[in-house]
Amino acid sequence: MFDVNSVTIKKILLNCVKWQSKAKRSKQSKTELEQSENFRYSVKLIDEKKTNRNHSIVWNYFGYLYRNDVLFDDKHYYCNICVPQVLSAKYIKTAASTSLLHHLGNAHDINISKLENALARINSSSQTTISKKTKLSRQIALWVSRDLRPFNIASTNGFRTFALETGVIKSIEELPSERTVAGTALNDIYTVLENALKEELKEIDLIFTVMTDIWTDNCGNRPYINIAVQYMSNQMNIKTLHLATEFIERPHTGEKIAKKIQKVLEYFGIKQKYYLICDGAKNMHSALKFLTNCLDCISCSAHKINLVLSADIEKSAVYKDAYSVIVKKVKRIHGALVYRFHELKQTFDQEQVKSVFEYIKEWEDLLTEQLQSDESISNDNDEILREIFSENLANIPRYSAFKTENITRWNSKLAMLKSFVANKHAINICLAKLNQTDLMLSSQEIEKINPLVELLDTFETSLRVFQSKYEPTSNLCILFHSIIRKKLSNYIETESLDYQMWQDVLESFNMRFKIYKEFILASILDPGQSHSKVVADYCESNEATALNIIKFFFVLYDLDEQYDTQELNTSSEFSSGSQETVQGSSVANARFTLLMEIEGPERITKPDCIEEEFAKYLSLSSNYPRSADILNFWKINQKVLPNLFKLAKIVLGFCPTSSECERAFSLSGVLLNKKRASMNPTKAKKAIFINANYDLIFPQT
């Protein structure tokens, strides 16, 4: 039996009273929240200079409560992140800043250390000197983020020895702790880069591109959304900048995605209109109606091609019957040899040595015959023969690593099949040594691989034009579309045994790979394509002229009010076009129609300004070499063609793929590995941000 004394009873009663009061406050906060629907609540941060409080970063998040812009409660501190959704996140004025720090960490995952508060006090005071330890901690944080190293590297014995031996520090006490590096120092570097990025983004003065995608890490199974932008600078240089890689809660609804994008853009002060580039998921496209300045949501071209060559091709009856078994068998062979690649390379090298000796013997016999038939061979001819001999030896295939397929990358299947064909003899020898002859592919099966390799290689060679990060790619979309359709049609006309698979791929490609009006405009404003038959055919198939397309977008983008309504009849120019060839923007068309109804013909002035510029452009581009730099053309002629220059700056800076998001996710995969599966998402966000934007303040030499 327990001895329950009066003190214990008092404690129990006191706790009951506390619980009752807490429940009462919770009920009151719910009532206030219900009543708040009729009022607009906000938090205005307090000025530390007017209070006795020391400067602390927490005061960037807490202040007094205002209702309809009138002071409502100055006896408590309210969290500006919680309000207006939650009014109960309040603390009395006598509360310690530690309580506010705990609230930020527990409720919003904002971890502000005591060292970070101390740094803020130092920066706000008259002191300007920074200690050696602080500088060292920032350099380590920068190094860790740049190379994606673990944050505890400063605490390892090897690093300590290195720092002591090289004179970086004189004693171990001078080294910063892991907490300092991952907390204060990381936040300092992040803040500097954040401000540098904000300055860089001020250059955006016209419509730009926002790229976004969602990725889930393999270790913690946590989803992250990446947001990046691409635009054309005033110096006509394409700039791609990483804004954020943030944790996003499930479920990933369109409204939630839109809020994340809107929040990031507003934080960086971006107010211009933009295009959203994303995959073809419905939730991504549904986010469009929740975004204020978004002109249209355009599907990523790379995602569509990946669907064509992965999911769609596997649905083809020919692929299922003839190729599916072979591909699975090659993957099984890779699994059997995955720990014996050193033996595979050794076997390949031995086979190559044999082939080289055979080749030398063959050449020796040919030279002997020629010397016997013609004894007057000069030294010059002998040198020529030696050059031919060395060139042929250089063409002997080298060993390439045997690769496997990644289900999310269609070109990994091509790499796997190519590496298998290149190493097929060595692979068969290794399988025979392992007594796994049942995995060997017959000569007929190996021959079957060639058409599939040829099909995938057609896409890979044509897609290389999209891999440039610093050159325009939107102007190449219709060229790529035209080339792929032409090549697939040629294969179908041969009526080979596998022509039905080519037909299925062509149908899938036509259905998924859309040609947007923006792509056609970019090709028109490419001086190397302005006179090409391909561009003319795309315009003609949609019953539109290049001039009418230019005028359409000039009005759509609000670049100038000087247009002619007689030339801009969208119902006849675009709506009757082939829907399979051109995917128009429903939002853009509706907006244009409203503009035409509201503005009316009375706003018309100088109706021939665009026509005159377009005539000048055609004249200038006719003499411009097709292989010359496109952006240099517009840089030279921006004063001669001021209106078309604005259009070119928008559409040539347009990115048809979300490749920058894929690059960020590759970095995320390196950072969030098995050893760092429990890394805080906020810390991961800052490390990836620093890595992606490192060159803003530390340009590579």
TrEMBL record:
It comes from the Eukaryota. One of its GO terms (cellular component) is nucleus. Its main location: nucleus. Keywords: DNA-binding, Metal-binding, Nucleus, Transcription, Transcription regulation, Zinc, Zinc-finger. This is BED-type domain-containing protein. GO terms for molecular function: DNA binding; protein dimerization activity; zinc ion binding. It is found in: Nucleus. PROSITE patterns: ZF_BED (PS50808). It comes from Polypedilum vanderplanki. Signal peptide: none annotated. InterPro entries: HATC_C_dom, RNaseH-like_sf, Znf_BED, ZnF_BED_domain_contain. Pfam families: Dimer_Tnp_hAT (PF05699). Residues 53-115 form the BED-type domain.
